[in-house]
Predict the structure.
Amino acid sequence: MARKVRKVTKAKTKKQGEGQRHEDELQAIKEKDPDFYRFLVEEDQQLLDFTADMEAESEDEKVEIDEKAEKAPKEKSRLLTLERFEQIRSSATKSFTAFKAVINAYHLAVRSISSEEREDAVKGDVEDDAVRPKRSNRRRWQSMTIDSEATFSAILEWCLANFLGLLEHHSGSKAEDSATVDPTRLPRWNRVKMVSQFFWDETLALLSHAQTAEMQEAVLRTCSDARALAWLWPFKALQRRYLRACLHIWTQPKPSSASTSSVSPRLLSFLFLRNAAAMTLLRDGLTLEALLRSVLRAFMAATASYSWRSLNSVRFMENCILELFRLDDAAAYRVGYVCIRQLALLLRNTSLSSKTLNTGGKVKAKIAQGKSNKAKASSKASSLANGKPQQHAKVASKKGKSAAKQSETLVSWPFVRAMFLWARLVSDLKALKDLAYPLYMVILGATKSQSSLHFAPFCLHGLTALNELMAKTQRLVPLSALLLRLLDMDLKAIEKASKGPDEAKEAVHIEMLLQLPNFEEETLSKVGNYICALFIDHLGLLSRSVAFPELTTPVLLHLRRHSKHCRVEALRRQLKLMISLVEESRQQVQRFREQLQEPPPPGQLFVLDATPLSRQRAQLLNRYAEHEKRCIEAETAQTREKRKCPKP
């Protein structure tokens, strides 16, 4: 019993001590700025609820303040100036009351942005950022007002830079363990839990309403730090919301900031994703596999629209995904296995739906034959008259529509970029080496599934991905037969093609196509040039192998035949140049084999350093890199000119 009395006495003494300290903290604000102190009393009654024993004293103080409030102007007390904010922040490290006042000021500044956006949306000014009116000098939220733009900026900048330090100070965390400590295990976590959640809510609102890349950069510098993520991690709902916001910035940066700091917010958003991925390995909650799947879904959605201007952006995202997959081999393999399996299922469904479409055509033919056959029995004729042929036709049409959707899903930019992405991941990550053969079969099946020349660009993308897979894994990937098939179809189509009108038309880039827009001679010639370039790329790699003479013997027969019958002079010159380079490389490889004293090391496909074909391949890749750069610059300049043009 005596122990309980002592505990209660200590608790009361401690509570009274905290209340006295709380009162002393407010007394300093009261002496310096009585009007602002009066407003705090009116708006937050909890500031005066020190202890239960001091309730009467608090009531007397409130009555005295209310009497004086009738004489003082209310507008002055409700104005948050820069001087008043400096008074609050100067005592924020010593006073928990001032610490809460800082977060209230931060909340006021953030919510003033969202309230202004709602007003602008009503007026219709949000349609064009260039015509947006300047912010008002006075910002209102409920009954509190920020007096100037300088105060608004000072509140945001100071809180973003120093609030995490205040959280660590008031929670009892040590500075050296701030990046690895679990805030929920700190002695005063319950005291700062709601304040911490309040800060992250407001910071997310600020990030969502940021109108410029500079504002996004300032917010993300705070959020992306590993020290900051330790304080975000206890709130699971906020984790998901921040992940979605950073994925949106990572995939869709603001176009207006392209000339200044467009890359910086994307880099900082990736830094958030990378540190969050590392945090999943240390803390419970979000798993690394779930985060990787979210990143891959965002990447697939971002590649739905593909052009020269987005090429660098797509490659940047591929580099980021590669870094995320390096964090944990086991999680990378599980996610890679599931994703490649999904690509295989998509290919399987497309193949089955195409067979169904062909079967639907046969059903329609049988129905027509049944209608025209009047020599059948009356029972069969009556069944046909009752509408069964029409039902079969409806079913066939529905299956045809589903087959068309499946084909569109396969022949799409997300699938193409997924092929290139996984070819790179499987090649660069040792943990994914075992997935090389399944990926090869999926890409090869997708290429073979489109047998028409109309889908030649899609097939060439798949063959390019396979060639990159062979270059990095040093595993033999035979592509010559597929390239010869495409070349044969292209040359036959050129013989029947017309030159087309002489009017000025946009340049056709096979790299940015999935289907041929037309079958004119100029377009088909570009397809032939692309096939020849891919042939040099593929044979240039194989020429470094000791088996090159045997691999190219049947290929040379077809190339010589095509070079004789090709009617396009430029294409015929390319074929003859390729044949001469192949023959020179064959002779060099044969001389190298005669000089060998030991067999090549196992698992190494490329043994020779350089051959005539490999040197031609290197020159070709350099020219293609310059061509890419010119196309990207031209399309970017064209886009900027369109933005500068006034709207009609």
About this structure: The mean pLDDT is 79.
